[in-house]
Structures are given as structure tokens and as C-alpha cells.
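Researcher: Please generate the 3D structure of the following complex. Treat every line as part of one assembly.
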Amino acid sequence: MCGACGVLIFAEQEDGEIHKVTYELLGKGRVLADKLGKNLCAVILGYGLNDEAQELIYYGADKVFLFNHPSLKDFDIIKYKQSIVRLVNEIKPDIFLIGATRIGRSLAPRIAASLRTGLTADCVDLDLDDEGNLVQIRPAFSGNIMAQIKTRTKPQMATVRYKVMKMSIRDPARKGEVVEMKAEPIEDTGIKILEKKKANEVNISEAEIIVAAGRGVKSPEDLRLFRELAVLLGGVVGSSRPLVDAGWIGKEHQVGFSGNTVKPRVYVAFGIAGSPQHLFGMRYSDIIIAVNKDPTAPILNFSDYYVIGDLYEILPQLIHEIKKVRCVEK
Amino acid sequence: MNILVLIKQVPEIEKVRFDYEKGRLDRSSAGAIVNPFDLNALEAAVQIKEKIGGSVTAISMGPMQAIDALRDALARGADKAILLSDESFAGADTLATAYTLASAIRKHGTFDLIVCGEKTIDGDTAQVGPEVAEFLGIPHVAYVEEIREVCSDKIVVGARMERNYYIVELRLPGLITVTKDLNNPRLPTLRDKLRAMRAEITVWGYMDLAEEGSPRFFGLNGSPTRVIRVYTSVAEKRRSQVLSGTAHEVAQKIVQILMKNGVLR
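Model: Done. Output below.
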């Protein structure tokens, strides 16, 4: 287990819970490290995370660097940056991947600037060229085009969009090494958390079923129907951007390039035209069902099933039919 | 309080059309505007100034035409404006951009607070703000959606991360990046616009930053990342099976699809 570190990934945690993008980074990181013939390493910072460090090995890491200290329990950008920069200078990975979450997108640039290395934001794919250099693929201009980017400094750093890459598969028989790192306590970083509260509970990225509303919805009160259907199906209400911009629904429900990427089993879109920006966020859904009045709406081409019709007729009927099925069940 | 706001001139992204046949961006109908998130940053700075006094300086890097964006910033309440414009600044990625901005901020002198937009609508990286903070060695908080309190040596802000919403006390000098939820940017009055038209705008080139930065870190030379290929990306077309009939029939068909796929049992 003393090979060089080819790929380092940042294992993000909040309240001791590992963000699932971490397992996607391990999935892609494993592929890249194997191609390089080098180790896949992970770094995790926090307090009391020995089990979580072990999990990272089950999910594909060869080596996990664990910074375990009470002062690292909550995210502190300066403490995290200093510890990680120290580690990177020590193990010199070729590639360093971080989830493109809010924490990742705040932390990665500080690390990149400190290391004076290049950083590519929000990648949706990664590959190696013939020389083993990282090819970073990211959307540009609202997801209309893709750009391939290379970095001529090391480590080649990228943040990676959540719900785009495949999670690695957990194998509890996997062996690896957890390396305890000494956390150097920094007294005053200039950042003090005064209060911490749960942000809203909606987690649309994780949803298996999404009932999405678009511009075809005439008033915010009508979203009640969407909520009702979502509850019946055990899903979450999604939305295209116009409703969020109008303040009818929170940004946490937004699906699309500037909102969330989703990968549900079923995505039912009512009154959504299907701009490239919206399609960008839901294109990975297993099954897409679209209902739209306009027979020329682009979303129809990108759906598995579509209905040309008025959502105000179909949505209530659908709720009614589902309730009927449910009753028979009982 | 001495506040700096970093702004960028961007194309009106909604008017940038995409030619799917040719696989090219058509910017001909898109004008140039101040990056919308930067207007929230500017508004936050102006509100702080109005409350506790001080000055707001807008700084931008770009071609000479970016002076229009700075005039807009002046009309919306900035007191001073500095444009960093030089051939050797061109082609900069986020690292080189942040390095150049940080060099200019050092030349500008003392400051208490730097406010940036969450990201730009053309680059969409959200990297320049945090990178500037790192180059200047000051702490930062990203994704600020609430400013609770401002004192001479600290600011209390609210920011959402993944699971939690945090109220954070940030020591000054420090940097924040702000979201659209923070405020509603004001519209400039005609009088403000006229005043801004006449205002003097400082322009610095690379010679002006020679003491604060090294030319090898500016522009394309100082950029470790390179775009090597650009191509179109559209979602994959699917089978597009039409479901027809009355609303009642269509609803039944959808129920069947949901049942077939195990969503309803």
C-alpha cells in the first residue's frame, strides 16, 4: 500500500454524514487511478469519523487520510484549507477531485489558489488522454455546449457535479489503510459559527420520483395539485426556473443547469417546455413523462411518453386514478 | 467602512442563441450587462455604506468596453471605479483573474470588506471570489443570503451549505460572495446615470500592477487551464411514445406506466 497517490478525493461530511457525491468521486477516481496504475486516496476532516473513514475504503479508496479533531467538526474554510494543502504538498497527487457542492465550490478555489494550480468547475465527466493527463469536461453557456479542459499544473483539480457520475459499489471485504493525520489547531481563523440550523428538508437530487411544474402553471395556488400527486407517489415537487424566479416555489425545487441535477426513476413534467437548461438537469432520469399543451414543445422529443393536453385536465384525473388504485389495494 | 465590489461585464446570456446545426454560439443579438449576481453584491455594499458610512469602490477586469459596466455600478451607488485592462490580462482563467484582481486590490490599499456575486452567468465557476480571498490571505464566506450585522471589525452573515444554514461571524478584512436572495438591486435614476456618465474611471494596465504582481501570473500566461475542445451537447432524444385519449384515458395510461415501473403497486 505504499504506491504513489494518483487520485485524491475530498470526502465531504456535514454533521458526520458523508455527502453522497463522495461515493461518485470514488467511483470515477477508482477508474482514473487504475488507468494511471496508482493509488486512489481520500481525505476526510471532522471529529469521530473512524467508521466513515473505513466506509471510504469499502467504496474504493486505497488510503484514507483522516484529520480527526474537535475543531474540525464543523466546516471552517481556513482550517480545512490549511490541512488539505499540507496533505497535498506531502502526497503530491496527480489529480484532486472535490464535489461541486456549496462546500466544495467554496473550498476548492481556496486550495487551488494556495497551491497555485488550475481548477475546473462543475465537471460532468473526466477522462485521461494518452499521456495520462486529465481531460475535464464541463458544461458552458447554460449547458448548451461542453468544453474539454486540460490543466498544465499539478495537482489537476476539478469540482464534480453531483448526480452525474456513477457511485462506486460498496465492498466490505475491501482492504485499505486509514492514515491518522495530525490536525494542527488554529486558534482564530476569522470565522466563527454562531448558529447552525437544518436547512430545508427538500432534497430533490436524491428523489426517486419527481412531479415537476413549469410555466404552464397559472397560479402558485395550483402547485397544491403537484404536492398532492408527489405525496401520493412518495416523491418530491420539482420546478423549472420561471416559477422559482417568480417566487412561487423555493430554489431547492429547481431542476436544471442553474438548479439541481436529478436522476429519479420517474420524472413527470407538467407544463414544462423543455429549454436546454431544464433538460440539462433531468436528462439522466430513468423514465420521463411529459404533459404539454403545445405539440411543438421540445420536451416531447426528450421524453419516453408524452401527452398533448392541458395539465389542468390531466393532473386532477391522474390524482383521482391513483387514489382509486390505492383504495383497491386496501 | 471601505468596501470593494468585484464586478464583471458579461453577455446577456438569454440572448445568446445557439445554432444547433452549426454547433456555434451566436452572440450578435446579445448586449453586454453587469453580471446579475454582481448587482446584488453592489446593492449589499451600498446598503452597508448608507447604514454605517464609508465608500464603495467597484473593480472590474476586462476589455475597455467594460467601462460601461463600471459606469452602471457608479450609477447604482458606487463612489469610485477601477478598470483593469491590458492586453496581457487577456485570456485569463479563474486563477489568473483572481491573481490580477488581488494585485489591484493590494495597490488600491486598505479595505475592510470585499463583496462579490456568487458566480458569473457566463463562466459559472464561482471560483474567483474565494481565490481572491486566498491570494489576499483573508477569510471568506460564500453563498451569503443574509447580512445580519455589520461592525467596523466584523460582519455577521447567514449562508446555506448542504444540510445546514449557518450564521457566521466573519472577521474583517474579509470577503463574502452573495446570492440573489440577499436583496433586490435598485434601479439607477436618470440623474445618477448622467452623473456616472461624467465620472472619471481609473484604468490600470500591467505596468500599474508591476509592484504588486508578476506579469508571468497575468492573463493567458498565468492560466494553468486551457480549453482544448468545445462541442454541442444536447440531451438524448427518447422514444417519445404518445399517450392519447380523453383526460381520463390518459390518466389511466400514466397509472399503468407507473405500475409497470414499480412506482405504484
